Amino acid sequence: MLEGILKSRGHQIVKSVDEAQVVIIDTCGFIESAKRESIEEILDFVNYKKNHKFFLCVKGCLVQRYPEQLRSQIPEVDAWYGVLPPSKIADALERKLPFVVTQPQVTYDETARVCHGSFAYVKIADGCNRNCSFCAIPYFKGDFRSRNIETIETEVKNLVKNGVREIILVAQDTTAYGIDLYGKPSLDVLLKRLNSVDGEFKIRVLYLHPDHIDEKIIEAISSLEKLIPYFDMPVQHGSDRILKKMGRFRTSSELLEIVEKIRSANPDSAIRTSIIVGFPTEADDDFEDLLQFLGKAKFDRLGAFIYSDEEGTPASLIQEKVPLHIAQERYEQLLVFQSQISYERLRRFIGRTLTVLVEERQKQKYVGRSHLDAPEIDGNVFVNRSVKMKIPGYYNVRITDVSEYDMEGVLV
Ligand code: SF4
Questions:
Q1: Ligand 1 centroid to 128 CA: how many Å?
Q2: Is 130 in the pocket of ligand 1 (CB under 6 A)?
Q3: What CATH superfamily is the domain 353-411?
Q4: Contacts (Cβ under 8 Å, ≥6 apart) of 144
Q5: Confidence of residue 111 (pLDDT cuts 50, 70, 90)
Q6: What is the pTM of this model?
Q7: pLDDT per residue over 127-168, tens digit each?
Q8: DSSP reduced 3-state for 227
Q9: Measured in angstroms, how far is the CA atom of residue 137 from the centroid of ligand 1?
Q10: What is the CATH number of domain 2-100?
């Protein structure tokens, strides 16, 4: 969106940093690893700046979270901007303002969206009002604010008109969509509306809060024609004691019931989850409960993280921490445990035909994604290059082989 606004004001987007007069780094301040990655990126550019002349601007969540610390510790950066609407960032850049951090603000300009690829993320809301004890997002992203259905629809129509084939709806918690605007959770209403937009495209929804997924959401994602049957449901743990300490409401058996409901609505649905290991007080028994839970839930996809203290959160105040080497051991054990489950889940597709969004041509193969694969976090489908395919495009692919994460197939 910022790119679209800058272009509409006559600025040029260049391919190489050597040609740039302004460099903008977007940051994330969510968890330790994301913060570290953002800082490394900033320092790389600070280093590069020693021999190149450009205006270096850093923006986003990390700046919103640590404005003064960053400004005093990395004085080489020319401008720091917090969570601001893209138009305000463009204004500040044009005036070369050195520092703009206010209460987090988000506004959208659905007409200014520029998209280069086969898929596009569409933010349907921002901020969060939940109280997960390990998470600092509500402190620096502000209250949950939904966009109205009309602006989201306009943005989706524009993206589809520009060739986007997969729309990926995101928010800190997509299940809460509309609660602030329409007085009740309205994700299902939004999905029905987007499902009726014309064009050859599909819709994937990420970040469904497991405590708030309900029948209406399951029904919409499982049955609407353009919806990808993919449920990204970050449960975070499988021990009831730890779930409670995390500020989650559903117990492990209630979460298993949700998994069951999703699979009875459509047995081929893909379910992805995230797990935090090493949460304060996590004992061997809790970890055992977690493995047992995962063994029953049999998630198709799983991302795992080692717990890290986020200052200001209730979890960071719990004294009984899990030593890092134990958390690391559990993390590795969990990944090995899950890899067999993921493999078994994918194996059931061998011999079957899946719809695949083919996005890339390589020397020997085409590369695409099935309904089981969100970009950047899941696997791929590799298709033999026997026939020339137009990319991006949806194709029917018969699966011939699988590994834990990827599949191989032939064009049908
Ligand atoms: S719902 Fe997500 S963003 Fe909100 S507090 Fe929980 S983990 Fe953080």
A1: 6
A2: yes
A3: Nucleic acid-binding proteins (2.40.50.140)
A4: 125, 126, 127, 128, 129, 172, 173, 176, 179, 180
A5: low
A6: 0.89
A7: 999 999 999 999 888 899 999 999 999 999 999 999 999 999
A8: strand
A9: 7
A10: 3.40.50.12160
